[in-house]
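Private note to self, pasted from the team thread so I don't lose it. Backbone tokens:
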């Protein structure tokens, strides 16, 4: 199956109808990652071969659960999940934050090439970055544990801010280990088409540090 066919079929299984322009942008993003992955150390060769299910569809699967407004992709790396979310949810205002300069240069190239007016790549250390006003949502796939994620972004959290952690298996031990200031509101089991792996979205709220 072609890339376009696999992507279209996966999005259909998710009940997502992106429109032709959004589909074109997702495929163009895939080609940019393929072209520049080695130079910018974006994803592993194995991940590159399975980029549609492991990354594009994985990110698309959480799109319906992301609140509107402003979103920070913390530790964006190759632009995941921020770029697919920005394409599928053009009303979102997405900041792609990463501390690695060459990855942010790649994200700026993606933003310009795809014409993503709702995307702002930022080169900064997360722990030292404090935008105003606080974001509506902070999302990440980059942190080893829920506590690491919550601790790193605590200074960015307002009472209404939602923290979305994309995880594999149900993180029972991580949830049990959370302190009182970091509350789990909901854990959604995510079914990703074409991906034979468990996926969960942990939705949290935290008090200001």
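Design output:
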């Amino acid at each position: 199956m072609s890339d376009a066919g696999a992507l279209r079929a996966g999005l259909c299984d998710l009940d997502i109808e992106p429109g032709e322009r959004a589909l074109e942008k997702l495929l163009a993003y895939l080609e940019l990652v393929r072209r520049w992955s080695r130079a910018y150390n974006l994803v592993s060769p194995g991940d590159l071969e399975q980029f549609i299910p492991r990354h594009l569809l994985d990110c698309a699967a959480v799109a319906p659960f992301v609140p509107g407004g402003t979103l920070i992709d913390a530790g964006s790396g190759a632009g995941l999940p921020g770029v697919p979310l920005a394409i599928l949810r053009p009303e979102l205002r997405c900041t792609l934050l990463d501390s690695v300069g060459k990855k942010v240069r790649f994200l700026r190239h993606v933003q310009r090439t795809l014409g993503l007016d709702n995307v702002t790549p930022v080169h900064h250390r997360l722990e030292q970055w404090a935008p105003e006003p606080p974001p509506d949502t902070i999302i990440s796939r980059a942190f080893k544990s829920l506590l690491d994620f919550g601790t790193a972004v605590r200074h960015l959290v307002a009472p209404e801010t939602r923290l979305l952690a994309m995880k594999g298996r149900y993180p029972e031990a991580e949830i049990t280990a959370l302190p009182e200031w970091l509350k789990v509101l909901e854990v959604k089991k995510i079914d990703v088409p074409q991906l034979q792996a468990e996926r969960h979205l942990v939705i949290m709220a935290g008090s200001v540090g």
